[in-house]
TrEMBL record:
One of its GO terms (biological process) is DNA restriction-modification system. Transmembrane segments: none annotated. PANTHER family: TYPE I RESTRICTION ENZYME HINDI SPECIFICITY SUBUNIT (PTHR30408:SF13), TYPE-1 RESTRICTION ENZYME ECOKI SPECIFICITY PROTEIN (PTHR30408). It comes from the Bacteria. This is Restriction endonuclease S subunits-like protein. Gene3D superfamilies: DNA methylase specificity domains. Keywords: DNA-binding, Endonuclease, Hydrolase, Nuclease, Restriction system. GO terms for molecular function: DNA binding; endonuclease activity.
């Protein structure tokens, strides 16, 4: 069976460039043979008109409404999406930003970076083409044809270059057979994702119900809270919202935990005395988990390294982020001598009184994180801060330690179950995409029955 190998031009100077096999089982067809660009008339909105603008998600994940603007705010031309058309983002074709326009996007608009194409229904199935354009082999072909000054953000695939791409194209009936097999796996994956969502929602709801959490703000069990007026603009002023008490007493986190802000990263080129340590920053702390895929090092003194070394069961909060994400927290349960930057705050709880896993759950649940969302301050409108002082004053319910541990165990066990379902769903989607791509690009077609 003849096989064509495809790679990017700039990779030809390496010993073993990554190659994409294209099987000789199916005829090679140019995109121009089954796709014709359409040119809808530009929409000229009235100044007071609300215009929805769409984008195309990477990796074949479909269209989405990315923003809504007044007509007076739109400077360039915009074009209406037409249902049934294939649309792609010229800047991110190499990221598989292709989609078929579905009926719910009628009346939504795009810029001229999103050309649209009519597909020949007698030659191709639109759903099949969308899945094929999301495959890794096709992404490699699109990347090879894309040009621009910046490979990451200005790497455009022009319409003329898309039209010149040739792909192995099975007959229409074979396309539909492959698409059905693909869709069966995707449906199973979607069912697993829905199950994961139900498990997560039920687990968080049960956690909050036991505590008696409501939609109202939570208050520390104190009669009076006093702060100097001049300090109210500070990131770390002590402000406690009024509201109903929970089922158990509510205390300040700082009464049962040592609160510490991390250190600033030394200026670039600083080579002072001390030790080099890997450090965590805001990007490494997700809600209830850590992402250590990108960890940097900094040089600090022995004294600072000792003071900021993260211990097992330390609770880390994100000090600055969007208003939605500020204060998200995770409990450290990894190995290694890590320290933390000043974009994080550490809470080392008195574990005989306040369980760190329970505390983490509380500040990640809707009722608990509301304190950070309402107490955080900003000078930019996009980056919100809580500071160590506000973190120390954060209200947390204090059930008996045995109840804390049971609540935490039940919640995190359910969340682990949900994560397992999501992992299975991801594996199914990956397998479905690879199987279809291999059937087209990398394997011989099955013989007659």
């Amino acid at each position: 069976m003849p096989v064509t190998q495809i790679t990017r031009w700039r990779k030809l100077n390496v010993w073993s460039p990554q190659l994409t096999p294209v099987t000789g089982s199916w005829p090679m067809i140019a995109f121009a043979d089954f796709a014709t660009e359409v040119h809808p008339d530009p929409h000229r909105p009235a100044p007071s008109e609300h215009v929805k603008l769409a984008g195309v998600r990477w990796y074949g994940r479909g269209l989405f409404v990315r923003e809504e603007r007044l007509g007076s705010e739109i400077k360039g031309r915009c074009y209406p999406l037409q249902p049934g058309m294939l649309v792609y983002n010229r800047l991110f074709a190499w990221k598989s930003a292709f989609a078929v326009v579905t009926p719910e996007f009628c009346g939504v608009h795009v810029s001229n970076e999103f050309p649209q194409f009519q597909l020949d229904e007698l030659t191709v199935d639109a759903g099949f083409i969308q899945v094929l354009c999301a495959s890794e082999p096709f992404a490699a072909m699109a990347a090879g044809k894309s040009t621009g000054t910046t490979a990451v953000s200005r790497n455009r695939l022009r319409q003329i270059d898309l039209m010149s791409l040739t792909i192995p194209l099975p007959p229409l009936n074979e396309q539909r057979v492959m698409l059905r097999a693909y869709q069966i796996k995707i449906d199973r994956a979607d069912a697993l994702s829905r199950r994961a969502t139900r498990i997560r929602s039920a687990a968080w709801m049960a956690f909050e119900e036991v505590l008696g959490a409501t939609s109202s703000p939570v208050a520390v069990s104190r009669a009076v809270s006093i702060s100097r007026f001049a300090s109210m603009s500070r990131w770390d002023d002590a402000r406690v919202d009024s509201g109903p008490a929970l089922r158990w007493p509510v205390v300040s986190l700082g009464d049962y935990a040592d609160i510490r802000l991390g250190c600033q990263v030394p200026r670039r080129g600083t080579h002072g005395p001390g030790v080099s340590r890997p450090y965590l920053r805001a990007a490494n702390v997700q809600r209830g988990r850590f992402d250590l895929s990108d960890v940097k090092n900094m040089r600090v003194t022995e004294r600072i390294a000792t003071a900021l070394t993260i211990r097992h069961d330390d609770l880390l909060f994100v000090e600055g982020n969007s208003q939605e994400e500020v204060g998200r927290a995770a409990v450290w349960n990894r190995q290694g001598e890590y320290i933390f930057q000043n974009s994080l705050i550490r809470a080392r709880t008195n574990r005989s009184m306040l369980d760190p896993w329970f505390t983490c759950a509380w500040f990640n649940c809707e009722a608990g994180r509301r304190y950070f969302q309402t107490s955080a301050t900003t000078t930019t409108g996009t980056l919100w801060h809580i500071g160590a002082g506000k973190t120390a004053n954060a209200p947390v319910p204090l059930p008996p330690i045995s109840i804390q541990r049971k609540l935490a165990k039940d919640l995190w066990s359910a969340l682990d179950d949900a994560a397992d379902n999501e992992q299975q769903a991801h594996a199914l989607r990956t397998h479905a995409s690879a199987e279809l791509a291999n059937s087209v690009f990398g394997q011989a077609a099955p013989g007659p029955a």
